[in-house]
Structure formats: C-alpha cells, structure tokens
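To whoever is on call:

I kicked off a structure prediction for a single chain this morning and the downstream step that reads the tokens threw a length-mismatch warning. I double-checked the sequence; it's 407 residues and nothing unusual in it as far as I can see. Pasting both halves so you can look.
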Amino acid sequence: MNRDAAMETGAEPIARQARIEDIDVIRGLALFGVLMMNLVTAFRVPFWNSSSPPGQGLDYVVHRLLVVLLANKAMTLFSILFGAGLAIFLERASAREAHPMRLLCRRLFFLLAFGLAHLFLVWDGDILISYALFGMVALLFIRRSTTVILVAIAACLAIPSLEVLSPWVVSVMNPPASAPNDEALRIYQGISYLDIFHYRAHEAVTHIWRGYVTYWPHELKNMLIGILVWRSGILRAPLERLRLLRWTALVGIVAGSTFPIYRIVVFELYHPPPGPPAPGRLLAHWFTVTIFALGYGAGILLLLRRTRLGKWVAAAAPLGRMAFTNYLTQSLVFSTLFYGYGFGLIGKLGTAKTAAIGIVFYILQGIFSTIWLRHFRFGPFEWAWRSLTYGKWQPFRRHHPTVILEA
C-alpha cells in the first residue's frame, strides 16, 4: 500500500508506509545534542542558578566543542521538526477527520499536561510546555500563505532585540538567580524529594515563566520554519533537491559555527564589559543558530543518501521514533543520578566525564529503542499520548492487525 492509497482508505489511521523515516533519523540525532547539552548545563549544575563553567584542560575543550557544535542548535532542529510534525499531523488528520484542528489542539493540550507533570515532578528544564504553548500559537499560521509565515518568521527573529531597548524587558529576561548557587546545590544535593519539589515549584513561579518570555519568538520561529520545510516537499523527495541540500548543509554549518567561535574568542580574550548585548549581536546569534540547525538537517538527509554512511546514520531512527519516551527517560534517569535523593552527583563532575556518561547512555537508549520497536509499534509515552489524543486505546503490539496512524 503506498502513501496515497493509505490515505484513501478513509476513517481510520494511516499505514506505516506513510511514515517519513528520514524525520525519525534527524529527530534521533537531534536528541543526542539535546541530551548532551541538558546533561552539561542543566543536570551537572543547577539549571537556573549559574552558567555552566567551562573548567580547565579536557573539560574546557569538551565544553567549548559542545557550545560551538550543539548549544541551541540541537534544540532548534528539534523545534523545527516539531513544527513539521504539526503540519504532517494536520495534513493526514484532514484526510479522515471532520475537525482536524480540534484533534491537533487536543494533542497539544495533553502534551502540555505531560510537560507540567515533568516540570513539577521530575526536572526544571522541561521543554514540553514550550512546545505545547507555542505549538498552539503556530496553529494560527499553519494554514496561512507562505508569505504570511515568512513575515512572521522575520518578526520573530527581530523581536529578541527588544531586550536592549527596554529596561523592563531586560529585568524580565535577565532576572537574578532564583537562589545563590551554593544554596541551590545544597537543595539539590539534599536527600528530601519534597524539598526539591518545593524548590522547583518556587522556580516555576519566579523564574521558569521568564524563560518562556525570553524564548517564545525563537520557538515559534522554529515551528513556522518546520511548517514551511514540510510544505516545500523536501522531506518527501530529498533526491529532487540535492543541490539545495548541499548548499544548505555547507552554508549552514560553516556560517553557523562562525558566530559562536567569534563569541568565545571575543569574550575570553578581550573581556568586554558586562551589559545587555547589542541588537545586532542578538539577531546574529538567533539567525546563525537557525541556519546551523538547518545545515545539520540538510547534512543528515545527504548522508542518508550515501549507501555505506546512510546505514550507520539510519541507526538513529528508532531513537527518533521514541523521542518522547527517550526524552522523559533521560530526565528520570539523570535527575536520579544527579539529585540528592538518588546518587547526588550534581556539582561533582566535570564536563568531560558528564559528556562520556551521556554518550554511553545514548547508545544504550538506541539499543533499547531498537529492541522495543521489534515488539511494539510505539514507545510507551508515545502510545499514551496517542491514546489520549484520539480518546481510545491505540494498538500497541506489532502483531495487532489494525492499520495505525503514523502522523
């Protein structure tokens, strides 16, 4: 059954052949970058209380490599894929549902519920709330013309520059730490889960909401780009756009890496006085992060077209198909590893050791995801989210005869 035939079968979900496997691979590789940056900057040290120190020697080298290659880029790529996912879901739901937008809003509502539980019960670095909230805003544009979406993207790129124009915006976007770093370490190193829970709740009220104020233009821009990427057809037929993919990969990765290298050199060698960044620097930062992420995505699509390399790169597909489960599992495992009610490693490991732990864990997640998907159609959290979205239990085991949705 091909994709078109599957969509013509009517009311029930679409067959597996309709799935875009390349998206799974890109999402699985982006998950690695998200994991590494979360580990180094948000589990190894208190997330909202101090910047991640680069350390010395090998720690310094690893930290700087992660900043140049992954910081904000992996999460940006993940957000772009989320926007593409919204467009895919709407396109496929429209083929069989009377009210596809209502179904998509329901999907985002339950994502918000997962995010709130994740934030308050597990970890203060949750991104699901952001995806749910700004995904709902993106729905306002999802059926608009390409011109309207491009204008909205341009506006989102320019908005962060307001930070330097208004003292009030500066105070909102750059609040003092929610607690001195030593106090935050004491709380997270404590053995009481309830103390950490109360502290996370305090952070949510005083600080975490400010992060949404700061990053909403960036997140919305990424999702709108993802909608346009899916609309362009490049994910459906990458072989027809190889020249565009090559230029995107080259320009994105080369130009995108230039700005973070420049920032490291300027801030570490010349030590400019502290203060809010200039509008041009903010715009350059968000623009280069975006083109770097697009360069990564294009590069992965090109590698998948290579026979030998493509097989290795495609091994990330199971991780991408279970990205929701793998992301939440990372939070559960590493909050236990670093917080005091578990092994209490927060503030005790350097960047290099933490990165090594992340690489090993990512490989283990890849093995687990591959084995799991031999027996089940979805990861457990993907299945729960899907069942809640449709209001009925979805087929779970692979031997189930029912054709299922893969949007």
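Update from on-call: the warning came from a stale cache, not from the record. Cleared it. Sanity check on the structure: Residues 1-18, 401-407 have pLDDT under 50 and may be disordered.
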